[in-house]
From TrEMBL:
Location within or outside the cell: Cell inner membrane
Name of the protein described by the UniProt record: Type II secretion system protein H
Source species of the chain: Alteromonas ponticola
Signal peptide from the UniProt entry: none
Topology term for the membrane: Single-pass membrane protein
Amino acid sequence: MEKQGYTLVQVMVVVSIISILLTAGMPSFTDFQQRQHLQQILLNAHRLFNEARQLAILNKNTVTVVVEASDNWCIGATKEAMCDCHQVASCSLNDRPMQVSGTHTGIKLADTRKQAIAKVMFAGGYGTAYGSATTLTFTSNIGVGKVVINNLGRVRLCADNSTSIGLPQC
């Protein structure tokens, strides 16, 4: 009489091998998730600043981007002099919400001007940011990424040497 199936020892060996492989791969997966999250936050902030600049040029009106660099950071754009980027409908352009929030992200934001609430103002018609150029530094466990706004209003992304998130080095 022939036996079919696997013995208990064979099943336990397979389960042990699978658990070892999963345990070894978990840190890599966690790093991947954190890297993707940092990259997404950077891209969202870059998009917000570029759209604010483009609308300032197109509508020939000054657009203000409010940056609140606290533990619960946020960034919002408006045609008004100020907006509360923590309020959902407070920061908008052309009736479209323009906000990036750092709530529960594990990513910290710092502004080179070291102000709790800073403004970047894009001049209407030209899109320049004279007097409000800055570098926003986003820091996570996986590394550091930056959104750099110069006096001409150009917005660019970069990362430090140790961060491999697919951005050029600063």
